[in-house]
Amino acid sequence: MELVAQLRELAGVDPADVRQVVAEVLAALDRAAGGALRDHLPEAIRVDAGLDEPTSAPH
User: Which of 8, 14, 18, 52 has the fewest CB atoms within 10 Å, i.e. the most exposed one?
Assistant: First the structure.
């Protein structure tokens, strides 16, 4: 619970700030895991966190 409280404090109440903090945390965790975390995240989260490029929708 301490991490959650710290994230809330860092992010404040602005949803854009929260999203940025979460993206930075996910990117750091992915780096620490040698890139393995991204394999377990949905594409939308990977893209938001800057871990992946969006795929094109089929035509």
Answer: 14
